[in-house]
Design the sequence.
């Protein structure tokens, strides 16, 4: 296991000065159940290096821009040269013009472009510009798509908002929320209805390939539909290509799908990994921006010379070397194919979505096509996946709603290490799922004992509880008739145990007194919905029997209810349902306990696979239950308390022996897999 103590120490210090210890929420690693993130000290090529000196293969790439890897020599060279000239001027530079022309060459939809400092700023400005152009107020966005953290675009957004389960960020006014309309991504009918019914929509903004609820493989037909209906309704169509621009192809999704939106927003790669953003599009729309028009947009660091220089060099390399995109696409297909093979090998519920050099592993049985599907994918399995990859030196997204990004400089060795770690992750997921099923099966066996232990749930005091526990017996329903006692109309159930009968009736003192007077014996008075008491000697049984009616269906129902109310699992078996107990046990045993457990794990794994034994126990238990029911229904009046107790004791003894052996082996497995307990809810 990697030593990350320095990262832990830094995180504790960070929390004192930075909210949550991080400057972007997903970085906290909370969604993957880590106590703290790793803090990065440096990067080179496909690798990241943390403050503890650990090396990781980077499958995030700063969320997309590192398509050429970290500190690509040619990019680093121009950055160094530019920094020597100055890092910020607050005045225009020639290189801003060069970058603008370069972007225009790759994106025919962009006739004019304005640089910003981030993708959020770009999308925010594009929305404002759309409102000014159309003289309308509302925007339509799609659930799960993330367009930055500006007010109107945070409504039902993806990325970190999905990760932390708050799609509507606090601080957004009601008025802003009303001006933002959302629709399920890819839903033709709902989108059409919204656009046709709502006359005040200024723009439709969309990630043409969503990558902020995990990668969603978009249909070209849906984007063509958006283009057609927005043009018809005089609505500005905005493609948010902050992630996909220059990443999936030189001309982004616009080029891939052959669709020209009215406005495009860009970021990430156009700054070569340095802070930058941009929005551009049709001349008649863009010329509304100040100083030409009256839509104000400004930024001191817009067109920062270092970012611009890095962007020019990065895009130029991509433009001059088209084989880069071909290589990335080929590599991604190979990677996805091997992931799918491992999914089949370990038979885990998982699927992979990918587009060119982006992919997401969703732990779900079916293909993920929208936000609802993405939410349903397993958080637990993803957390195991993340944790295992991290332990093996691979950085993957710390959220199931984010994309993996591969770079041009990822080597064959990098991919082999990725596959090796991935197989370990899938193996762990499979073992934990098998373990959970085994625990479930064993717990099911133990639940068969519940009816054999009456816990005294309805007793008033601990003293009474202890007294009842000592007298615990298995009661059987023998009759039911509301008018049986001829006391008011209170419901009354009659139970038999050996020489005693048990009466259950509603809390009514008059009823209780009448029972005691008519039948003798004792009835316990307890406040509440139900009253339980030991009453009625066996000598009164035949008289009651004549009045009452035995009906099998009713008896079965009452027996089920009684079991639920009175049954408890023996304390010896609490370990199966209480992970905290297991954790405490491991903590007490320390390293010696873990080592001992590890030695035994190989003996357990074959046992885990022996499901036939579990099934055999289940069948045997069902047979016993069936025999029990026959005895209760057909021969209950002939059964004596000692016979019932003997049956109970024999059954308990047999099951206790079997369960104890099973308990030991399962406990060993749990100890050996201590780090995985946190993933079991």
Sequence:
């Amino acid at each position: 296991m990697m030593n990350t103590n320095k990262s832990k120490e830094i995180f504790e210090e960070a929390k004192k000065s930075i909210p949550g210890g991080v400057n972007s929420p997903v970085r906290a690693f909370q969604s993957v159940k880590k106590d703290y993130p790793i803090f990065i000290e440096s990067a080179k090529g496909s690798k990241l290096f943390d403050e503890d000196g650990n090396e990781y293969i980077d499958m995030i790439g700063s969320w997309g821009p590192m398509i050429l890897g970290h500190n690509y020599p040619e990019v680093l060279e121009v950055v160094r040269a530019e920094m020597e000239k100055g890092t910020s001027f607050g005045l225009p530079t020639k290189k801003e013009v060069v970058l603008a022309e370069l972007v225009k060459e790759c994106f025919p939809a962009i006739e004019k472009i304005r640089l910003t400092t981030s993708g959020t700023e770009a999308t925010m400005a594009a929305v404002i510009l759309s409102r000014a152009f159309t003289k309308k107020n509302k925007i339509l966005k799609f659930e799960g798509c993330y367009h930055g953290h500006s007010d109107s675009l945070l409504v039902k957004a993806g990325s970190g908002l999905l990760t932390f389960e708050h799609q509507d960020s606090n601080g957004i006014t009601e008025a802003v929320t009303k001006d933002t309309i959302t629709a399920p991504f890819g839903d033709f009918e709902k989108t059409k209805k919204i656009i046709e019914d709502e006359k005040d929509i200024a723009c439709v903004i969309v990630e043409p390939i969503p990558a902020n609820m995990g990668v969603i493989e978009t249909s070209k037909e849906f984007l063509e539909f958006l283009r057609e209906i927005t043009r018809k309704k005089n609505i500005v169509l905005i493609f948010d290509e902050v992630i996909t621009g220059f990443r999936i192809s030189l001309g982004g999704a616009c080029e891939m799908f052959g669709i020209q939106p009215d406005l495009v927003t860009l970021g990430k790669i156009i700054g070569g990994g340095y802070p930058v953003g941009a929005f551009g599009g049709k001349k008649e729309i863009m010329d509304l921006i100040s100083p030409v028009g009256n839509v104000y947009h400004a930024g001191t660091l817009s067109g920062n010379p270092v970012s611009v220089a890095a962007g020019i060099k990065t895009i130029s390399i991509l433009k001059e070397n088209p084989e880069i995109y071909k290589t990335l696409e080929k590599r991604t297909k190979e990677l996805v194919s091997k992931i799918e093979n491992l999914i089949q090998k370990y038979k885990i519920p998982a699927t992979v979505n990918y587009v060119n050099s982006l992919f997401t592993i969703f732990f779900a049985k079916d293909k993920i096509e929208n936000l609802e599907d993405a939410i349903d994918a397993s958080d637990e399995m993803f957390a195991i996946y993340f944790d295992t990859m991290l332990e093996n030196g691979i950085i993957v997204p710390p959220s199931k709603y984010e994309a993996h990004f591969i770079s041009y400089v990822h080597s064959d060795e990098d991919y082999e290490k990725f596959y090796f770690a991935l197989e370990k992750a899938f193996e762990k997921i499979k073992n934990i799922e098998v373990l959970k099923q085994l625990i479930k099966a064993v717990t099911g066996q133990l639940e068969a004992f519940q009816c054999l232990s009456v816990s005294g749930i309805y007793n008033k005091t601990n003293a009474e509880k202890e007294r009842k526990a000592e007298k615990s017996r298995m009661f059987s329903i023998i009759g039911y008739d509301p008018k049986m006692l001829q006391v008011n109309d209170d419901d009354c159930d009659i139970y038999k145990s050996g020489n005693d009968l048990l009466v259950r009736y509603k809390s009514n003192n008059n009823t209780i007194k009448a029972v005691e007077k008519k039948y003798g014996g004792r009835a316990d008075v307890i406040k509440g919905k139900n009253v339980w008491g030991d009453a009625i000697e066996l000598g009164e049984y035949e008289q009651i029997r004549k009045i009452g009616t035995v009906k099998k269906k009713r008896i079965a129902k009452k027996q089920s209810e009684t079991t639920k109310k009175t049954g408890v699992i023996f304390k010896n078996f609490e370990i199966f349902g209480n992970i905290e107990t297991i954790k405490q046990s491991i903590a007490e045993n320390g390293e010696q306990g873990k080592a001992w457990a590890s030695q035994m794990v190989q003996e357990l794994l074959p046992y885990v696979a022996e499901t036939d034994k579990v099934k055999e126990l289940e069948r045997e238990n069902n047979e016993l239950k069936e025999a029990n029911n026959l005895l209760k229904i057909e021969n209950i009046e002939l059964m004596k308390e000692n016979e019932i107790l003997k049956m109970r004791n024999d059954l308990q003894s047999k099951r206790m022996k079997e369960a104890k052996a099973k308990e030991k082996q399962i406990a060993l497995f749990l100890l050996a897999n201590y780090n995985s307990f946190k993933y079991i809810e």
About this structure: The longest helix spans residues 412-447.
